[in-house]
Amino acid sequence: MSRVYLSPPDVGEAERRLLLEAFDSGWIAPIGPQLDAFERELATRVGVPRALAVSSGTAALHLALVLVGVGPGDDVLVPTFTFVATANAVRYMGARPVFVDCEETTWQLDPALVAAELETRARRGRLPAAVVAVDLYGQTPDYERLAAACEAHGVPLVEDAAEALGATYHDVPAGSFGAVGVLSFNGNKIITTSSGGALVSSSEALVDRARHLSTQARENEVHYEHVDLGFNYRMSNLLAALGLAQLRDLDARIDRRKRINERYRRALSDRPGIEFMPVASYGRPNFWLTCVRIDAGRFGASRDEVRLSLEAVDVEARPTWKPLHLQPLYADAPRLGGGVAEAIFADGLCLPSGSGLSEADQQRVLDVVVG
Ligand SMILES: *Cc1c(COP(=O)(O)O)cnc(C)c1O
């Protein structure tokens, strides 16, 4: 029996065929027809006019913060309950993340905390340069309330939708809510280009600007002329071919992850002491990862005991994100609340959820968790 991973890449013949087609076409560079097609289809899927494919979600986040004008000494509101990349991009700009807690009912960034903080800061004349919202574990925060708070104070909103491609909020696709949205195609995400990411926006001007910055900001001259500080962040045409095959199969992948989630829920429905990440009524998740909270006393085993029992049969499960305000890297960053994220980190567990997870392997997980 081979190891079961949390969310491994799920690739097959279609990916292989498009990748070899791209290889044979000779476009072995960060430019080419597959890259163009991937960006077009991605933009359509997210419901925006333009997308820019880049080398990682982290690179897209970095560009997003450049685009909305974050600079040295600025503050940026960021959820504490997320992957470290969200906050690292703030640091790359010489700015400071201010960590905001999530809601217990959705595990997502708390819009009331964001609104109150923006009010307080507006009175003091010290508004943050941006708010970065994260669509955590494949569902979105309440964007109506977040966007209203940001608009009221003229603060740009950036959407880190790295985990949420294909999810919706009131039937509107994740990725389309901020001034700029960010996607990731890392090996563990819902679709992968092995490594990669994208920046999306309803503003074509912003995406054009990002394209310029992502290719070393070369001016339109025959010699190499530079005015702006650029980056080398473009995606390879070969990897875009992989992404194209994956993107065309996105709905089937969401459906498979949803069915895994439903199977776990059914099998554990009459067990006390275990709760699944709540699904907010305002949207449809992409079910990227199925996560649970385990109350050791009522369940009869702690989160760590369950995780170690899974590990003993070669199944990977992981604690939910460690809140960033608890990371040594960000020990000195200010924060608003944090207790909810800490509680979820204490008893939260992510279960194997890959779209290629066989029924036999789902059973292997359940045999341990159900006991
Ligand atoms: C994966 C992820 C990123 C970073 O994407 P990479 O492609 O790995 O650089 C950023 N934010 C969140 C929330 C993520 O899950």
In brief, what are we looking at here?
The protein has helices spanning 13-25, 33-46, 57-67, 84-92, 111-124, 143-153, 204-214, 237-247, 250-268, 296-299, 303-312, 339-347, 359-370; strands spanning 50-54, 75-79, 96-100, 130-134, 157-160, 168-169, 172-173, 180-184, 197-201, 274-276, 283-284, 290-294, 318-319, 335-336, 348-351.
Describe this structure in words.
The protein is about 40% helix and about 15% strand. It is of the alpha/beta class. The chain has 2 domains: about 15-245, Aspartate Aminotransferase, domain 2 (3-Layer(aba) Sandwich), CATH 3.40.640; about 250-370, Aspartate Aminotransferase, domain 1. The longest helix is centred in the C-terminal third of the chain and has 19 residues, at about 250-270. Pyridoxal-5'-phosphate binds near residues 57, 82, 163 and 184.
Provide tags for this entry.
Aspartate Aminotransferase, domain 2; 2 domains; 4-stranded antiparallel sheet; globular; 371 residues; Aspartate Aminotransferase, domain 1; 8-stranded mixed sheet
